[in-house]
Specification:
The complex is a heterotrimer. Chain A has 20 helices and 21 strands. Chain A folds into two domains: 40-58 and 93-269, 3-Layer(aba) Sandwich (Rossmann fold), CATH 3.40.50; 295-552, Rossmann fold (3-Layer(aba) Sandwich). Chain A is an alpha/beta fold. In chain A, strand 8, helix 8 (194-209) and strand 9 (213-218) form a beta-alpha-beta unit. By secondary structure, chain B is mainly alpha-helical. Chain B is built from 13 helices and no strands. Chain B has helices at residues 2-11, 30-58, 63-69, 75-84, 91-103, 117-150, 155-170, 173-187, 200-229, 232-238, 244-282, 287-296, 300-328. Mean pLDDT of chain B is 79; it is low at 1-27. Chain C is mostly helical. Chain C has a single domain, classed as MetI-like fold. Chain C has twelve helices and no strands. In chain C, helix 7 (168-195) packs antiparallel against helix 10 and helix 11 (258-265) runs antiparallel to helix 12 (273-305). The chains are: A alpha/beta, B mainly alpha, C mainly alpha. At the B-C interface, helix 1, helix 2, helix 7, helix 8 and helix 11 of B face helix 5, helix 6, helix 7, helix 10 and helix 11 of C.
Chain lengths: 553, 336, 306
């Protein structure tokens, strides 16, 4: 095959979906005028937030947009063939044979009821790569080629029996089983710990080095910067910027791209606003956040020697938190860093009094907090409030926003008028209109829901706010607004924050001091800059090193 | 429908991801342990059922003697009967004796026919089993075909198939039997009206009995498959170039087996109960007529025997299904 | 310094386009129901009318025999024909409605009330209120439900009738008992899910008492499925009641219960198809109507929760 010819050539692609049901449903365009190409041996990244259309682009290349879609393009060539004329049989040839797709989170992207070997075997059989008797052998070879240890054992295992990273590599193996020239990876490293992400990306990079093309779809700019040769940025179904990765990330021309890059929290954004309140396209000038005073002498939250274990099955127990201690000063933000399984969620539960510690104590504002009978703690509940990762599941599904916000102050027995007035004031503070009160949280966007959660948390006027991954589920621009909002409110009210996250950029942006958790223990504590720029402990070093170069806007 | 889905949720809880690797497991093999637990709980259920039935009978005093003596009120006869049937023992002693007999498979003696219940039932159980099995197989096959056919079709097709399912489930077995008789026996003369001679007389009753099973199972399978088709891994499967039909049969149907098997347990009970009614409609001999006669004659041991037998069948089937569950869903094989 | 842009979207390719459509659907909860649902509601209303005011609809006395007019085909005088004893079938169906419907309702009511209470007790005792002894209670209740569900409803009813003799309320009780495990299991599972939900945990952060959480969060959300199941269950109960009556275990002839009517028609089918068709039509129609209404309630529920 001609090495210079692109594997995929797309020009002026438009995809529309029939919205709603029925034959006369209006057609909503999801992609407009999208153009790009991918060649052998190169990596093109598509970057964008939700609704940008990046996943639809990937699906279009496999003809998987579904029966309610209309695809038109000036040019849509796959391996030199005109794909606009493809019938279902042609598409089936392409799928897996010419283009392999890797989705995120192999736990749900592989059939949980079938072995890895069977899943890979399905590709081999469909594309007749090897005779039926040899599929298991070939599957083992493929697993070895993606660096799976003990492949001959793993081939007969089920997806849930493998760790996240190994699962993802098995998924990659099934995508490349029929030897496609182009690999499309749609968010391949989300749901993976940072240290494991690197391994998965290396696997993909190795294939590119061998001559495959890679179309990488990601929301993670650091992933993109590490592996992609060229980048296109999409917004609302349109390509707003395209070019070499280094160029686009350091010298973006489009206002949206610039806003996007400046919204990313990192060490360099500390003390400055991430978002843009006006929504206009102001470039590099950063507005400073209001100053915050930290009163080191006043300790509002103290944890000493906290330990907690859980019994699982018979006679086994797992240690979730072991001998964890920390202090939170008034007005300070303490960052809690940890990957999955580190114990950070359990720690948050202990601080909030959801669980009682096996050992150790928690004191809030100088008085005992845990372990303590709930009856004794209840009157003081207003001092510590919570903002969690998924606001929707923290709202009663049958309640409207007004009732949700009122719940946090029911103890105060306000009259209906007082409660409403307070709710309106809080909504206004978090940037929401009064009309939101009558709506159901499900009809709100992710960012709006989190604002409602913040309003609810502020209502009892707490001193301490526990934020458990509050922005992990949000788009970066929405995350920027929420982080700015929290910063404003914290400065205004002198709140102290316990901020739990796996995202080092966010932690570095918000935290004054940090503690690093690994396997139920604190491995490092100190000022944010010290720990994250000059890590002492091996684990912290590994965490920081696993991230590709910092993105500077 | 909802119940089946939630039953599946209850029976197959989200398994926590098992530890990676295949290190040596301490303790008994989890599947064997599960099997043993289910068998034990099955026995407990049967024991509880028998106990419940026995003690309910005790609440109605004097009735046993009345049944045995019929219209005769001769005290000498009654005393003789009491002695013969050990009714002079205390209730607790009778209960123990009852359990003891059950453990050896002796279901007691019929009040009316003065024969062992087992013999009374054993005579007539054959045709009923044949009918129930045939209807069951027909129902399952029909359900699988109906549900897989409707996946991915146009809305109109799916809606009409859904309506067919609804009609099947809602039509009482005795009415569909009557309709089939009207059309095929009286009308077209294709099948015999009554009796249990050979395959010809099995067709109409089996079809009538199979319809509700087919309808309900099809609903459950279809809804499960439609849910499965929305799962992320189906996108991966399609992205491999697999034919749509195979996507449904190889992947979606297997996933639908889980709630399907949950429902299958209750379907067995429905088939037995339905067989009783169907036999009446088609004049077939079998457990139906035996039991009805016993009910009319207040022949408690026979009715009790039939009921306990049905319960035993259900327990065996449920236990088997529970084992099969772990065979189909590997996530359940880890430590509970 | 992970630089994340977003939480990756749902994998459904059309999600972005239909999100706005779905939001619009959610907002419009007062959407008119499908024609099938309307028909079902009308039929149920009609049934209620038959139960309440049979005299208005029936043309003849359902018990009045007239051997001279036995086994007449449907005509202008006898819309559904006459049976073996010359009784007008349409009138008998009208008066028979009360038996099937009311007994079915009674049975469903028993199942709903007892089953829901058992389900809540089992679901709560497992986690929320009590603790280890709670788990014993949960196990005990669940096993009891297993015992009941081991018996096919029909056979259970036959057992009850053996003791008590045939009759209306006996079979209602039997069917009611047989239906308890369904509600118990569903409500128990829902209660489990709800007590572990985030919003229940959050209530602790606001200092809410256990009773308040139970009253305001757990019960309303755990019982969401009950009306749906109950509607469908009324249909199933009517099926079971008429089945048992067909076998002669319920109301006895000459009561115009629909199952009894079908049993009576069995012998004259060869010459009088109408005696076997119309009562069954009403049974099936009633079951379909109640099931359709139940399903419609469910889609409204799902729609308002999606």
């Amino acid at each position: 095959m001609n090495a210079a010819a692109p594997l995929v050539e797309v020009e002026d692609l438009t995809v529309a979906f029939a919205a709603g049901s029925g034959r006369k449903a209006p057609s909503v365009p999801v992609l407009r005028g999208v153009s790009f190409s991918v060649r052998a041996g190169e990596t093109l990244a598509i970057v964008g937030e939700s609704g940008s259309g990046k996943s639809v682009t990937a699906r279009t290349l496999l003809g998987l947009t579904g029966p309610r879609s209309t695809v038109t393009a000036a040019r849509l060539e796959i391996a030199g063939e005109d794909a606009t004329a493809f019938g279902e049989r042609d598409w089936r040839r392409v799928r897996g044979g010419r283009i392999g797709m890797v989705l995120q989170d192999a736990l749900v992207s592989l059939d949980p009821l079938r072995t890895i070997g069977n899943e890979i075997g399905e590709v081999l059989v469909t594309h007749r790569v090897v005779p039926a008797g040899r599929t298991r052998e070939r599957a083992i070879e493929l697993l070895e080629s993606v660096g799976m240890p003990g492949a001959d054992r793993r081939v007969d295992q089920y997806p849930h029996q493998l760790s996240g990273g190994l699962r993802q590599r098995a998924l990659i193996a099934s995508a490349i089983a029929a030897g496609p020239d182009l690999i499309i990876a749609d968010e391949p490293t989300t749901a993976l710990d940072v240290t494991v992400q690197a391994q998965v990306l290396d696997t993909l990079a190795a294939r590119v080095a061998e001559g495959a093309g890679l179309l990488l779809i990601s929301h993670d700019l650091s992933v993109v910067s590490g592996i992609a040769d060229r980048v296109i940025v999409m917004r609302d179904g349109v390509v707003v910027e395209a070019g070499a990765t280094a160029e686009v990330l350091t010298n973006p021309r489009d206002a949206y791209t610039r806003r996007l890059l400046s919204a990313v929290p990192s060490a360099s954004s500390r003390g400055y606003r991430l978002g843009d309140a006006s929504g206009s396209a102001e470039p590099r000038e950063r507005t400073a956040l209001p100053p915050r005073a930290v009163q080191r002498e006043r300790i509002v939250l103290q944890a000493d020697g906290l330990s907690k274990s859980f019994a699982i099955g018979r006679g086994h127990s797992t240690v979730a938190v072991s001998d964890v201690s920390f202090e939170l000063a008034a007005g300070e933000t303490l960052g809690v860093i940890g990957e999955s399984g580190s114990g950070k969620s359990t720690l948050a539960s202990l601080v909030l009094g959801f669980l009682e510690p096996d050992e150790g104590v928690v004191e809030v504002l100088g008085a005992p907090w845990a372990p303590l009978a709930e009856r004794a703690r209840r009157p003081r509940r207003g001092h510590v409030q919570l903002i969690s990762q998924d606001p929707l599941s923290s709202f009663d599904p049958r309640w409207t926003v007004d009732r949700v916000i009122a719940e946090s102050t029911l103890r105060l027995e306000l009259t209906a008028a007082e409660a409403r007035e307070r709710a309106v004031r809080l909504l206004d503070r978090v940037g929401l209109d009064e009309s939101v009160l009558a709506r159901h949280p499900r009809s709100l966007s992710g960012g709006q829901r989190q604002r409602v959660a913040i309003a609810r948390a502020l209502a009892p006027e707490p001193e301490i706010l526990v934020c458990d991954e509050p922005t992990s589920a949000l788009d970066v621009s929405v995350q920027a607004q929420v982080l700015d909002l929290l910063a404003d409110i914290q400065a205004e009210r002198g709140l102290s924050l316990v901020f739990v996250s796996h995202d080092l950029g966010v932690i570095h942006h918000v935290a004054d001091r940090v503690i690093v958790l690994k396997d139920a223990r604190v491995v490092e504590t100190g000022d944010a800059d010290d720990v994250l720029l000059r890590p002492q402990h091996d684990y912290t070093r590994a965490l920081v090193a696993a991230l590709p170069q910092e993105v500077r806007a | 429908m909802t119940s089946a889905a939630l039953d599946a949720h209850e029976l197959a809880p989200q398994a926590a991801p098992a530890a990676q690797g295949a290190g040596p497991r301490r303790g008994a093999h989890p599947v064997l342990r599960r099997f043993a637990t289910r068998v034990i709980s099955g026995i407990v259920v049967l024991w509880a059922a028998a106990t419940l039935a026995f003690w309910t009978l005790q609440l109605v005093p004097g009735s046993v003697v009345d049944i045995l003596a019929g219209d005769l009120s001769d005290p000498v006869l009654r005393d003789a009967l009491i002695a013969e049937w050990q009714l002079n023992l205390s209730a607790w002693d009778q209960y123990v004796a009852f359990l003891g007999r059950l453990a050896t498979g002796d279901l007691g003696t019929s009040y009316v026919q003065r024969q062992p219940v087992l013999a009374v039932i054993g005579d007539q159980i054959g045709p009923t089993v044949i009918l129930a099995l045939t209807a069951g197989v027909l129902g399952v096959v029909g359900a699988v075909l109906l549900s897989t056919f409707s996946i991915g079709r146009k809305r109109a097709v799916r809606a009409s198939l859904s309506t067919i399912e609804l009609v099947f489930v809602s039509t009482p077995v005795f009415w569909s039997g009557i309709l089939l008789l009207l059309v095929f026996s009286f009308g077209l003369g294709l099948f015999p009206v009554a009796g249990a001679n050979g395959v010809q007389s099995l067709v109409l009753p089996a079809v009538a009995l199979a319809l509700p099973t087919a309808g309900l199972l099809s609903q459950v399978l279809r809804e499960a498959m439609e849910r499965t088709m929305l799962e992320p891994f189906i996108v991966t499967v399609r992205a491999r170039g697999v034919r749509e039909a195979l996507v449904v049969w190889r992947h979606a149907l297997v996933h639908a087996l889980l709630p399907g098997m949950t429902v299958a347990g209750s379907l067995v009970g429905g088939l037995l109960g339905g067989a009783v009614i169907t036999e009446q409609v088609f004049g077939r001999p079998g457990l139906g007529s035996v039991t009805l006669l016993a009910v009319t004659n207040k022949d408690v041991p026979v009715v009790l025997g039939v009921v306990l037998l049905a319960a035993a069948v259900y327990v065996v089937v449920s236990t088997a299904l529970d084992i099969l569950y772990t065979a189909v869903d590997p996530r359940l094989r880890g430590a509970r | 310094m992970t630089t994340t842009l977003e939480r990756p979207p749902a994998t459904d390719a059309a999600s972005s386009a239909s999100v706005s459509a779905r939001r619009a659907r959610t907002a419009r909860r007062a959407r008119p129901p499908r024609p099938a649902v309307v028909v079902a509601l009308v039929f149920v209303a009609f049934l209620v009318a038959l139960v309440a005011l049979p005299g208005v609809f029936a043309a003849y006395d359902p018990y009045a025999t007239d051997i001279g007019s036995s086994l007449r085909a449907p005509s202008a005088e006898h819309w559904f024909g006459t049976d073996r004893l010359g009784r007008d079938i349409w009138s008998r169906i009208v008066f028979g409605a009360r038996f099937s419907v009311l007994i079915g309702l009674a049975a469903a009511a028993i199942s709903v009330v007892v089953g829901t209470v058992v389900g809540i007790a089992a679901g709560l005792s497992g986690a929320f209120l009590i603790g280890r002894s709670g788990r014993v209670l949960d196990e005990g209740l669940t096993r009891s439900m297993d015992v009941i569900s081991a018996f096919p409803a029909i056979l259970l009813a036959m057992l009850v009738v053996t003791f008590t003799g045939p009759g209306v309320w006996n079979i209602a009780l039997a069917i009611g008992i047989a239906g308890i495990p369904l509600y118990a299991r569903v409500v128990r599972a829902q209660t489990f899910v709800v007590t572990r939900a985030d919003y229940v945990a959050h209530a602790a952060v606001y200092g809410r008492s256990r009773w308040a959480v139970l009253r305001e969060h757990v019960l309303p959300n755990a019982l969401v499925a009950v009306p749906v199941l109950a509607a469908i269950d009324i249909g199933t109960s009517i099926l079971a009641v008429s089945g048992l009556s067909f076998l002669g275990l319920g109301p006895q002839a000459p009561v115009p219960e629909w199952g009894v009517m079908l049993a009576e028609s069995r012998d004259v089918l060869r010459v009088a198809w109408w005696a076997g068709v119309f009562p069954g039509l009403f049974i099936t129609g009633s079951v379909i109507a109640f099931t359709t209404i139940g399903r419609w309630l469910q889609t409204r529920d799902d729609g308002s929760r999606s």
